[in-house]
Each structure stands twice: as C-alpha cells, then as structure tokens.
Specification:
389 residues, 18 helices, 8 strands, 12% strand, elongated
C-alpha cells in the first residue's frame, strides 16, 4: 500500500494520472478520508496527476496521540509532497482541507499554483462546539457523534433518499479513530487565519453551499471571498459536503478554474482538428482532409472550428458522455451516416457494447422503436466490420 513516512508517522496516499501532468492535491473534510473525492476523479484524471491522502488521524494514516494544529497538518502535506518529489501543485481542500489550504497559501505560497477553498472558513466558530465534539468522541466514540454530524454534512433530502455517497461517508465516519477525530477537532477549534487572508496571492476559488450550516456564506465564505485578493466565489445548492451533493457542478467548477487559460491567440481550427482526431481517429480526418474540394472545404473548416473546436473541447462533459449523446441524437433524428461513424470510432476508443445497447434502449423509449431498430441494425453491421482484420 502507498504510505509515506512524515515526521515519524505513516501517511496513506493515492497518486494517479500521467506523471507529466500538472499535480492537483485533494484534501478531505474532518471525519472522512481520501475516498470522499471519488466522484471527481474520472473527470479530473485526463487533465491532472491527482494526489489524494488521508489526513493524520483519519483513514489509513497513523493517529499520533494528542491535539493537532492546522500548521502541523499543513507541514504533513508539504512533507508528503516532498517525499513524492512534487515541487508545485494546485490544491483543493474542503472544510478541514480548506483550512490546510489557507495555511499552505500563507506559508508555502511558492508551492501552490492555484487554490480552491470549499465549504470552509478562516475561523470555525465557538471553541465550545469543538470541545463538545472532543468530549463525545473521547467518551462515546464515533457512534455518539454520527447523528450530530451527518445532518450537517448532507441535506435532509439527501439523507432521506439513502444517497450512496452519504451512506459511504457515514461508514467512514463511524470507522474514524476517535482520537484522530478529536485531534483534528482541536486544530479547527484553535485556527484563526482571518487577519492573514489579505496576504494570500494565490489565485483562489471559494465554493460555498447554500444550505451549509457548518460554514455558511455569512461569516465564513464571504470573509474568504472578500479578504483574499481577487478571489472568486461560487454558490452551490448543497450542505457541507458540496462535492458529494453536487458532484458534477463541483467538478465542472474545478475544471473551469484550474485548467490553464490559453495565452495569446488560439486557433479554434487547430483545436478542432486535434479534438476531431482524438474522437474520430487520424485515418478518418486524413481521409476527410484529402478528399475536401474547393466546394466543401469551407464547410469542413466550419464544423471543425465550431463543432469540434468549440463544443467537443469543453470540459463540462467527458468525451465518453459526448459520444453517447451524439449516438442518441443521431439515432433519434435518423442521421445514420453520422451514427455509424460515431459507433465505429466510439468502439475503437472508449465505448463498449453495453454502452451502445443502453443508449439505443433509451432511444427506443424517447424517440421510438423504429429509430432504435435501425440503430441496432447499423450498430451490428459496424461491430462485424471491426471484427475483420
């Protein structure tokens, strides 16, 4: 298992993605672990090398005795990055992780390229609240805290429907070491970075849950957004764990904020050709380019520039999702030449037969059996063609 020794304790981590991609570190909330970020990983991996880790006292990391501080947790992270030879990184932290992120931006600004502070605060409210949690954790264990904590992490609607992410968090919370939880409670009890926020020069995005009773906009997110120079703010319709209640919106916000903005002039035609090759394959693009004439060349450039260079390159939907949408739409409208093209290219890249089947069954319900029937027939032909050498 991947562990790093940090200040004589073992810290569990997961490092995923291409080694030459920019690094994004994800830091979890108190009472959870690195698995909290699972809904974000698939969409982030094409763009980043992602480091997730368990904060000391949580998950598979060690639980040293005593109270912790945000500085101690921040130095753990720096030491982990050093052990993995990561010199610079973007950082996204939620709640406790956001407090760590503020410390990093203030004390290791040369390491942090961008900062996302989600559902967090520079100062976490009355010390008595955390003293109460420390006492309950020490006397009753995590079972004494679960009914208090879960309604703060998730909205009542999310809990009522038995949400899978909420159930997973509940299990992790119950399995958290009470001593580690209490240690991190002390860190949140004692932290107050309010007066230092103006010194942060790292580009910052503040994410706030509109139904978050733990770190609401008033007195928490608004202070971060106001005091950190140039910070942006985003409100999501969530409780405390915004990345789990609105995972797609959260991930899209990360991508839009963290992906590098093109410098100078960007040629959408070149971007379009790159996307078109990635989706349809080099052979198809080379053939289409070679057979273009003076009559249709401008049309070819138009679809490359706008369909491929403008829409297919947007980060809000994964390439796989765009493939499935394209198949459903072309089948529904009877655009069979385009349908066959995307069946063929999809199966050659990131689609499987079950994806085609489910898409066409959905088409049958909403666009009619004849459309799905034709789609299944054409898809079967393309599948046979791909079997031939």
């Amino acid at each position: 298992m991947p562990f790093a020794t940090v200040d004589n304790i073992r810290v569990f981590y997961r490092l995923e993605g291409k080694a030459d991609a920019p690094v994004l570190i994800l830091s979890h909330s108190i009472g959870t672990d690195h698995g909290m970020w699972a809904p974000q990983i698939e969409d982030l991996l094409p763009h980043f090398q992602i480091l997730r880790y368990d904060t000391r006292g949580h998950g598979a990391s060690d639980t040293p005795a005593g109270e912790y501080s945000i500085e101690r947790l921040g130095r753990d992270l720096i030491a982990l990055a050093d052990a993995l030879q990561i010199s610079k990184f973007a950082f996204c932290g939620l709640s406790l992780g956001g407090a760590i992120g503020q410390w990093l931006a203030l004390n290791a600004s040369d390491r942090v390229s961008a900062l996302v502070l989600a559902n967090t605060s520079p100062q976490f409210g009355p010390a008595t609240n955390w003293e109460t949690r420390i006492r309950i954790a020490s006397e009753q264990g995590m079972t004494g805290l679960v009914d208090m904590v879960m309604p703060r992490m998730f909205s009542s609607e999310t809990l009522a429907r038995g949400d899978v992410y909420a159930n997973a968090v509940r299990s992790v919370l119950l399995g958290t070491n009470p001593a580690g939880y209490a240690g991190c409670c002390a860190a949140l009890r004692d932290v107050d970075q309010t007066r230092s926020l103006g010194k942060i020069r790292t580009p910052t995005l503040v994410i706030v849950g509109e139904h978050d009773i733990s770190t609401p906009w008033a007195g928490h997110g608004e202070i971060l957004a106001r005091e950190i120079p140039g910070a942006r703010a985003l409100h999501l319709a969530t409780a405390h764990l915004s990345n789990l209640e609105r995972p797609r919106s959260f991930t899209t916000a990360l991508l839009e904020f963290l992906l590098p903005k093109p410098e100078g002039f960007v040629n959408p035609l070149e971007e379009g050709f790159a996307a078109r090759r990635a989706v349809l394959g080099d052979a198809h693009v080379e053939r289409a380019t070679a057979t273009a004439t003076d009559f249709n060349r401008e049309y070819q450039n138009l679809i490359t520039r706008y369909a491929w260079g403008t829409i297919w390159t947007r980060p809000g939907l994964s390439r796989r999702t765009r493939r499935l949408l394209t198949l459903a739409i072309t089948a529904s409208l009877g655009r069979w030449e385009e349908f066959a093209l995307h069946v063929r290219s999809g199966l050659m890249h990131d689609l499987e037969l079950c994806d085609l089947k489910e898409t066409l069954l959905q088409t049958a319900v909403y666009a009619g059996v004849p459309a799905a029937n034709s789609g299944f027939h054409i898809a079967a032909e393309e599948i046979e063609k791909l079997k031939k050498p």
